[in-house]
Amino acid sequence: MIEAEDAVATDGTVTTPESWTGESSWSGDALTLTPGQEATWDVGTADTRRWLEPVVWSDPGETSRSTWRSGGQLKVSGPAQGISPSPGVLLPYALTAPLAADRGEVGVKALSGELMLDGILVRPWLSRLVLEGDGARTELVQSTATGTQRATLGADGVASTIRVFDETGALVRTTSVTGEASVVVPRGGFALAEG
Question: Which of 23, 27, 179, 187 has its CA 20 to 30 A from that of 92?
């Protein structure tokens, strides 16, 4: 997560809220933007497109709107207080457009209301986890893309069973391979290689 206060440029206000909100914790300082104020962060480039999820504090009944350069629009309306001891909520919100792989900066401009940011989660379209030990190897590739994605799974000289699942967790296909194999991962789905 990129901390809100790590903006490379901003005309907003950085404050230090009490860490515990009554149901979650702030990661550090908060950056507040009022209409017309802006902030820019360096997120670096990547091998794949990425989703940006600003983590926003919202009070019940309050609404903020912002536009994110290379990330789309964001409208946040604070929900009514439930059983939480806190009247507000700190949640991540998905933007409406992905960030291009070669884009190293993201910026935001507050349009209405007060936008109070804790940070920005940056998630790749394809994420990978590899676990190895005691002669066994498991590899998981998960997609957050809006369409199918091609991924390479497996390792040289390792016999693996590759299972591909759709976004509901239903098995789509199973393949046995030795070495690396290219598979198509459905939108929102995942692939698991075990060997």
Answer: 187
